[in-house]
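Project standup — Tuesday

K.O.: blocked on the structure for the chain from last sprint. Re-posting the sequence here as requested.
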Amino acid sequence: MPEPTSTAVITSPRGSGIREVARLAGVSIATVSRVFNDASAVNPDTRRRVLERAAALGYEPSSLGRNLARGRSELLGLIVPDVSFPLYGQMISGIEDVLGQRGMSILLASSHDDADRELAASRHLLRHAVDGGIVINSQTDAALPSPRGVNWVHVSPEHGIWPCRVELDNVAGGGLAALELLRAGRRHAAYIGAPGRESAERERGFAAGLRRDDLAYRRAQGDYTELSGTQAADRLLEEFPALDAFFVAGDLMAAGVLRALHLRGLRVPDDVAVVGFDDAVLASLLYPRLTTIRQPAYEMGAAAARLSLQLLAGLRAEPVTFPPELVRRESTGPP
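H.V.: unblocked you, prediction finished:
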């Protein structure tokens, strides 16, 4: 039976910390620290010797220690209503990609769309010494406690009063939905909204677009869930069976509308056209595929991260507003 192979490992009874690296390299602890902090004053031969001894010992300096010495954690606090919601996941990806290029990470907390929980989450993040913070769909109109005196960046806040914010032009998005339904020849439309500023702005743009053709519309309220979309569509169709179009404040609710229409034997788009909002992943997976107003979630997250970095650098950060985009699919008919 062959002998088991073995690997030689350099060990030290005193451990493999910075003191051991300094001892083996014949330098001071301060010199080892300067080598790993890229100090230009270290002699090249000394630097090489320190790095060789450190590699042999498997030593890596503590980033926490370096950051504490500089008074920075390299962490950005992030408060999200619900991490399972696809749109927020795209925003988080944009934030992470920008921060990752700067060697920073995020520390995540959830608010569950509740102002009190949002405040508690911000305090929790501050206890972890975050350098700055981003909050998505902020529900509060009171200033959150600021990390190191740096303002929070708000993404699509419920209250549009915050100077450092990233948002979508929701009014323009509602206008695009109205134009699309008018293009499809629809004259009896309904809007299914949800609580909050975003939905109210989408409805305002939708109403203005229809008024240009002297058209009124019906409305019902949901809560951004698929079930609420189904129930709202059922109520509207019971009362107004002549409806030939729906504009829905979120794609998940729009999926519920499609279900309600299917169960009633109504064809989409032949009998009824449907426009959603957000362009979530499911919009292209539904049948028929959903025409929707795209919200550039990844790009909005990336913009929020860049604003945070500007604030950390002591620079002025101006609000950023993204334009919406119509994504036409089969639920409103062919071009």
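K.O.: great, moving the ticket to review. The chain has three domains: 18-61, 75-168+297-323, 170-295+326-332. The chain has a mean pLDDT of 88.
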